[in-house]
Amino acid sequence: MYRIRPIRARDFEGFKDIAIASGPGFTSLPVDDSRLLQKIRKSEQSFNAQVTSPNGESYLFVLELIHDQDLSKTEIVGTTGIEASVGMTAPLYHYHMSTIVHHSPQLHIYKPTTVLTLCNDYTGASEVCTLFLNKDHRISFNGRFLSRVRFLFMADYRERFSKLVIAEMRGAADKNGVSPFWGWLEEHFLGIDFPTADRLIGLGKKDFVAQLMPKYPIYLSLLSPAAQSVIAEVHKFTKPALKLLKREGFKHKGYIDLFDAGPTLEAEFDDIATIKMSQCCTVVIGQPSSSHPLAISNRKLEDFRAVYTETNEWNEELTQLTISEETARKLEVQTGDLVRFCKL
To answer: pTM surpassing 0.90?
Structure first.
């Protein structure tokens, strides 16, 4: 069975393996020991912090495959995360696509054109991020589980998050993992190749963005055809995640990533489908006879646990969910405890 829980210092080696597997362009998973350890420490501090409003906390979860009944043998096979409020300690940059019109009534010319404008519009928003699943475990409901579990957690701790939630989607890249959009910026403005920029961003060294990025709007028509073709397009491995977020109600409103031109999606906290439709109830340990795929969390904070199971029985009249003894053990709950669940 698979289970999701907060990351711990003991997970470092498994977390590093996930970072290596994520490949170039996945800036939130840099292959750098000190940076990965820093992310783990910050997450542990965030889960233990007393919080009344979002203030830069970072919550990282791992998906573990449990190999035996006593929970002692596990393997880290995926990760997912939430940033409570982005851009508060260092600026968060995006390009925003908008339209300007060149119009001459005398010459009977009316020509709209798209421009990219550097902005910090998402400052303070919460961000769902760092979702990666080892390719050998992209089966059953694992991907959906990794995505939706974040919203189960957020639903129980809404004071820790902002009213606006964003998701930066990994942009399209060539066979070498390089973005054609970055290639155009490198040639005309930056003089720094994509792997170097990718590494610096992953290490949190973002000062060069403000120093080198063009300050004035960029006419989209001036970009190379290759760069234009990937604007707001996602990496081939990111398409499933994009589909899941759209089902949650996330929409693209013209913002793209500075480096690979991938789309940034947004949704109001209270409009996210899982947050709206998930239910809280008491749990009963028994022998459920029904079969419905559900993601279930124990609603705890630093001891947060979540599993998905197809063996459960929902009693709407009593507001009770019956689960097996094995599921209860992995959730670390007893009969009468409160849980939150959603359909997968």
So the answer is: yes
CA–CA separation, 67 and 14 (whole Å):
15
192 with 337, same domain: the answer is: no
How far out from the chain centre does Cα 111 lie?
Answer: 38
* Amino acid making up residue 93: Y
Work out the mean pLDDT of the chain and round it to a whole number. 92
State both tokens at 319. 């507001």
The string of DSSP letters for 102-147 reads: EEETTTTEEEEEEEEEEE-TTTT-EEEEEEEE-GGG--TTHHHHHH
Name the β-bridge partners of 6. 61
Q: Is the dihedral of CA 63, 38, 235, 253 positive or negative?
A: positive
Query: Could you give the percent of the chain with pLDDT greater than 70?
Result: 98
pLDDT tens digits for 158-200?
Answer: 999 999 999 999 999 887 778 899 888 888 888 888 778 777 7
Q: DSSP label at 234?
A: B
Q: Whole-angstrom Cα distance, residue 189 to residue 223?
A: 12
Question: Is-contact 237 131, C-beta < 8 A?
Answer: no
Check residue 70 and give its pLDDT.
64
**Quick check: is 131 in a domain?**
yes
Residues designated catalytic? 235
Please choose, from the candidates 11, 245, 73, the residue with its C-alpha nearest in 3D space to the C-alpha of residue 146: 245
Range of the domain at 324: 278-343
Tokens of 7: 């990351």
Indicate which CATH number applies to the domain containing 259: 3.40.630.30
Q: Are residues 203 and 161 in the same domain?
A: yes
Does a structural domain hold residue 100? no
Q: Between 64 and 201, whose confidence is greater?
A: 64
Q: Considering its fold, how many domains does the chain have in total? A: 2
d(CA 326, CA 323): 8
